[in-house]
């Protein structure tokens, strides 16, 4: 069905989409290539929410490149189905129809219920040939959080962990700096940079006093286009110290809690953080509320979970971790060191949590394992 040229142009559109990796939230990352007679007339990518979508950027660039007269009869390759609804910008479908585009090839259907096939339907009704599914897996991989938020009403949760070869993440006394190599820690900064939010638990805040922010060079793509992710603390009893490093750095902080301590709440609010009361002490109900709130109220697409074994175990048990990023270091910490997840004892192998390794590669002296959770 697809030709070598189709793959070539969609591959280019995906490359363009990746330019928005750090800047498009809460919108998806989208790229577009307009082609006629095997000649690329124009390209575009969605740069930031509120700014033109990829298709509009490509059409605008065609005008600037004096190629607009050739657009009529061209083929548009786009990594996500063109929008058909009025949001912060006008529908892309109307602009494509007006420009005289002959064919539109979308990598994937837009999961937004306001679109969800309606964009391609409107184009078809206007006499434009449409197709979808070309390099769909790659397009989905670019926007797991947007898709999860639209389809399931919660963000995509990626859990980042570092462990020794014997499966330990910290010494018995809690010391964990540094298991992974400097190269792995830089790689983890890139994970933070693409995330909408970084989430941790009160245990980690008290034990490690972490910053939980992005620290990349000023020359990086994130420094040019991105911003600090929202920092999220799960602290049911509001034990976060007022002088915690995580509260004093640039960027927004939100604490989810179940405390009735008015004085403590006021003191924390005075530091500039947002407090959200959850009518549940702990467990799946608390965690599910947190993720639903972040999706609906903050439009969070991707969460990077950086925490200890207790919260990581609770999230895993609740079925709320979608992907694991594990940095495996060539070292041994011993039998009594802390494990990655605090999980209940299993009586049957059938109760084990099954994973799928999607990527394994060397990062410095470490091995980085990317695994999805099978459900």
Structure description:
By secondary structure, the protein is of the alpha/beta class. Helices cover 31% and strands 22% of the residues. It is built from 13 helices and 16 strands. It has helices spanning 4-18, 54-64, 92-99, 118-125, 136-142, 144-152, 182-194, 202-208, 221-225, 245-248, 262-269, 284-297, 309-317; strands at 31-36, 39-45, 75-78, 103-106, 129-132, 156-163, 168-170, 197-201, 230-234, 253-257, 274-277, 302-305, 323-328, 338-339, 355-363, 366-373. The strands form three sheets. Strands 11-10-9-8-12-6-13-16-15 form a nine-stranded mixed sheet. The chain has a five-stranded mixed sheet with strand order 2-1-3-4-5, sandwiched between helices. The protein has a two-stranded antiparallel sheet with strand order 7-14. Strand 15 and strand 16 form a beta hairpin.
Order of helices and strands: HEEHEHEHEHHEEHEHHEHEHEHEHEEEE
Rg, rounded, reads 23 Å
Main structural class: alpha/beta
Shape: globular
Oligomeric organization of the protein chains: single chain
**Fraction of residues in H or I helices:** 25-40%
Count of individual beta strands: 16
Gap from first CA to last CA: 32 Å
Overall mean confidence score, pLDDT: 90
Helix tally equals 13
The biggest beta sheet is recorded as:
9 strands, mixed
Strand content: 15-25%
* Low-confidence regions: none
Task: For the largest sheet, list the strands in their spatial order.
Answer: 11-10-9-8-12-6-13-16-15
């Amino acid at each position: 069905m697809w030709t070598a040229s189709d793959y070539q142009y969609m591959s280019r559109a995906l490359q363009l989409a990746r330019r928005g990796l750090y800047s498009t939230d809460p919108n998806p990352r989208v790229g577009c290539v307009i082609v006629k007679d095997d000649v690329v007339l124009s390209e575009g990518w969605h740069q930031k929410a509120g700014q033109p979508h990829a298709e509009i950027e490509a059409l605008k660039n065609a005008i600037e490149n004096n190629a607009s007269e050739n657009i009529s009869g061209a083929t548009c390759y786009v990594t996500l189905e063109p929008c058909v609804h009025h949001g912060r910008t006008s529908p892309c479908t109307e602009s494509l129809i007006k420009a005289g585009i002959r064919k539109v090839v979308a990598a994937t259907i837009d999961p937004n219920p306001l679109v969800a096939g309606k964009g391609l339907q409107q184009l078809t009704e206007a006499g434009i040939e449409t197709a979808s599914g070309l390099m769909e897996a790659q397009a989905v991989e670019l926007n797991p959080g947007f898709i999860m938020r639209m389809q399931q009403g919660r963000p995509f949760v990626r859990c980042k962990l570092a462990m020794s070869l014997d499966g330990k993440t910290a010494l018995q006394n809690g010391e964990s700096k540094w298991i992974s190599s400097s190269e792995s820690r830089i790689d983890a900064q890139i994970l933070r940079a693409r995330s909408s939010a970084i989430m941790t638990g009160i245990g980690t805040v008290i034990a490690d006093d972490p910053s939980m922010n992005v620290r990349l060079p000023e020359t990086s793509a994130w420094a040019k286009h991105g911003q600090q992710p929202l920092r999220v603390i799960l602290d049911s009893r509001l034990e976060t110290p007022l002088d915690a490093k995580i509260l004093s750095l640039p960027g927004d902080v939100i604490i989810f809690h179940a405390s009735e301590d008015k004085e403590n709440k006021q003191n924390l609010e005075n530091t500039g953080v947002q407090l959200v009361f959850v009518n549940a002490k702990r467990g799946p109900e608390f965690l599910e509320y947190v993720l639903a709130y972040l999706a609906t109220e903050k439009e969070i697409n991707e969460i990077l979970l950086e925490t200890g074994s207790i919260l990581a175990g609770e999230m895993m048990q609740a079925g709320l971790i979608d992907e694991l990023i594990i940095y495996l270091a060539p070292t041994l910490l011993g039998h009594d060191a802390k494990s990655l997840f605090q999980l209940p004892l299993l009586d049957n192998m059938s109760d084990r949590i099954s994973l799928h390794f999607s990527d394994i590669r060397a990062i410095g002296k470490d091995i980085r394992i990317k695994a999805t959770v099978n459900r």
